[in-house]
Amino acid sequence: MKPEITLPVTTFSQQFSSTRRGAHLARVATTHQLIAWGWPRDSETSRNAALLTAELAANAARHGRLPGRDFKLRLSVVPSPAVLRIEVSDSRGEKPPVPADPGEPAPDAESGRGLLLVEALASRWGTEPRHPSGKTVWAELDLAPVSSD
């Protein structure tokens, strides 16, 4: 039987510019927030969350960008079951991400592996519409107990 994880519901939210720099800053903010919540920088949870955030934020900046519109990062830890949810919302609801075919992309392709990475790291992921416009792409990580050693 797994030990019970007792965590408060905790949330962090911030907007970033829909640029490569904004995507980078979203990844950095995720790492810093998880450290503040008790996950060390080098923990599997922090590393995976940073990679997931980087990929979702890069997709928002590249494919969900509208001039003058930012994307929003929201992190939340839900206690039961213990899950870290990463949400990235952008303004382009008409362009939902499409899961990649495992046979693609070509070995020399410079892009097209992002959603394969998301699928490999996340416990679950998906999209939902954002009202009044746009979409939210989310990924969840099932959390292991934080060691007290």
Can you lay out the helices and strands and say which pair or pack?
Elements: E1 10-16, H1 20-36, H2 44-63, E2 71-78, E3 83-90, H3 114-121, E4 124-129, E5 135-142
Antiparallel strand pairs: 1-2, 2-3, 3-5, 4-5
Walk me through the structure.
The chain is of the alpha+beta class. The chain has a single domain (10-99, 113-142), classed as Histidine kinase-like ATPase, C-terminal domain (Heat Shock Protein 90), CATH 3.30.565.10. Helix content is 30%, strand content 25%. It has three helices and five strands, in the order E-H-H-E-E-H-E-E. It has helices at 20-36, 44-63, 114-121, and strands at 10-16, 71-78, 83-90, 124-129, 135-142. The protein has a five-stranded antiparallel beta sheet with strand order 1-2-3-5-4, covered by helices on one side. Helix 1 (20-36) packs antiparallel against helix 2 (44-63) and helix 2 (44-63) runs antiparallel to helix 3 (114-121). Mean pLDDT is 83; it is low at 1-5.
List SSEs in N-to-C order.
EHHEEHEE
* Percent range for β-strand residues: 15-25%
Give the total of domains: 1
Total number of beta strands: 5
Shape estimate: globular
Number of helices: 3
Mean pLDDT: 83
Biggest pleated-sheet summary? 5 strands, antiparallel
CATH architecture descriptor: 2-Layer Sandwich
CATH class: Alpha Beta
